[in-house]
Design brief:
heterodimer; A: alpha/beta; eight-stranded mixed sheet; 9 helices; B: five-stranded mixed sheet; three-stranded mixed sheet
């Protein structure tokens, strides 16, 4: 398709968040075009684990978004659950020491007050939830609301269900503006797409799209590796991770941080995360990162010592300085909306983000207050 | 055409290994997959979903389709593992972990 095309909304980025924005804006009755320079799920979406988590979020705007998103995922699962490998498997966060457990239980009490189901699990009850966990752990908290999808399938099926026009392999080179500065579409390497609304759902590359519209948005890449084992009969039932994962996610350090996150998949392999480091878009393999993942996972599940790792993959989380995504209209450019910067939580937070974007694009009141997610909340060029 | 003649190969003496208890002959330097192919075996795994037959697909260690159990260790890539005298090779069902 070359030449001009006119629609109501152009969404830039066919990852999970762009797909969810397409679904909810299309279901609000708008004519939507989704454009991506690569394929569907070709960026961070295709490099993740598909976590839909409430367990790792402290009370606040991100948790509110996670709870809204979890309800929307459960609704979508009625339609698409099998196809996107939706599993309401629950999460188990374990503490190795009594001090760690006290901190975890305090954290969980705060989450409960905010609407999270968080059930303390005594050490001697842990093996009922996870029979193969290492002995000697201090205790855990069970989060039944934590779920999982296969992210690439989820993005693809949401795009299909949206009925939006999908243009892949097409690079946005310019955000078109009217004389008074409002958005009027995008220019691509194969023709213009005209629309009064442009949604920046470019994930880790959201800063580049924002720059095309003349605004700054401080999205930075935060690299993560995932280690994939040989397929096994189901031995890890939940998403299981160590309590220090929460601190790692919230850390601002650029150095390598790893905390074990272990989960089985519908297909059989066990996925082992999670490493975090800010090294730009460096795609080279890191033995220290992967070795730390393997060691951490084996501490949680000793049987993994005899399991073969088949491969690793890596991706770049869209990191924001305050760990909150940018969602909503950009007051600096009328017609420009952002839906990016979800760091490692973009799959889980995609549905809520899509719903909120659809509501504000249509001029309605969003389900959540968007103030904490304002795209212009950062001091100009701090970094 | 015999590939050994084609390249003028003079391999060291052949040895035997077993596939599901049956003796087959292999040459030093062959991979498990090459030995199985030379013995006329092209499938040695059943997929974990529907039990479909699998053997070599890419042949270069990338696709993980040729997985086989060698000396009681499942999920070895037959196209990469060198065959050794006395190896016990078993066809693999599903994950190879007895599920």
């Amino acid at each position: 398709v070359s030449g001009r095309l006119t629609c109501d909304v152009v969404i830039v980025g066919a990852g999970m968040v762009g797909a969810a924005c397409a679904l909810y804006t299309a279901r609000a009755g708008l004519d939507v075009t989704l454009v991506d320079r690569g394929p569907v799920a070709g960026g961070t979406t295709g490099a993740g684990e598909g976590n839909l988590l409430v367990s790792d979020k402290e009370p606040g705007p991100e948790l509110d978004l996670a709870l809204l998103s979890g309800r929307l995922w459960a609704d979508l699962a009625e339609e698409l659950g099998e196809a996107v490998e939706y599993e309401a498997k629950g999460g188990v966060v374990v503490a190795a020491t009594p001090e760690g457990l006290t901190a975890l239980e305090t954290f969980a009490a705060g989450q409960r007050a905010a609407g999270v189901e968080a059930v303390p699990v005594a050490a001697d009850q842990l093996h009922f939830l996870e029979p193969h966990l290492a002995p000697g752990l201090a205790g855990a908290v069970h989060y039944p609301q934590d779920s999982q999808v296969m992210p690439a399938l989820a993005a693809a099926h949401l795009v299909r269900a949206s009925g939006a026009r999908l243009l892949t392999g097409r690079t946005v080179t310019e955000v078109l503006r009217t004389a008074d500065g409002a958005v009027r579409g995008v220019r691509t390497d194969r023709g213009d797409l005209h629309a009064p609304v442009v949604v920046n759902a470019a994930g880790t590359w959201g800063a580049e799209v924002a720059a095309l519209a003349g605004v700054s948005l401080p999205v930075l890449p935060r690299r993560g590796f995932v280690l994939v084992t040989e397929p096994l009969p189901r031995r890890v039932r939940h998403k299981v991770y160590a309590a220090d994962y929460v601190a790692d996610v919230a850390s601002d350090s650029a150095a390598l941080g790893t905390s074990p996150v272990v989960e089985g998949t519908a297909a059989g392999p066990i996925l082992i995360g999670a490493s975090r480091e800010r090294v730009g878009f460096d795609r080279s393999f890191s033995l220290p990162a992967v070795r730390a993942l393997a060691a951490g996972a084996t501490r949680l599940f000793p049987f993994l010592a005899d399991v073969r790792a088949l491969r690793t993959y890596l991706g770049f989380r869209p990191y924001m300085p305050d760990h909150l995504p940018a969602i909503g209209p950009d007051p600096r450019v009328p017609g420009l909306f952002h839906a990016c910067g979800h760091e490692g939580a973009g799959i889980g937070l995609a549905t809520g983000t899509g719903r909120l974007i659809a509501q504000v694009v249509a001029g309605g009141t969003p389900d959540l207050d968007l103030t904490p997610f304002r795209p212009d909340r950062f001091p100009k060029e701090a970094g | 055409v015999n590939p050994l003649e084609l390249v003028g190969a003079e391999p060291d003496p052949a040895f035997t290994v077993t596939l599901d208890g049956r003796e087959i002959t292999a040459l030093p330097g062959q991979t498990v997959a090459a030995a199985l192919w030379a013995a006329g075996v092209t499938s040695w795994r059943a997929t974990r979903g529907t039990g479909r037959p699998r053997g070599v697909f890419c042949g270069i260690g990338v696709c993980f389709d040729c997985l086989v159990t060698v000396n009681d260790r499942p999920n070895q890539r037959a196209c990469l593992v060198p065959v050794r005298a006395g190896d016990t090779i078993r066809t693999q069902e599903g994950t190879g972990h007895g599920d």
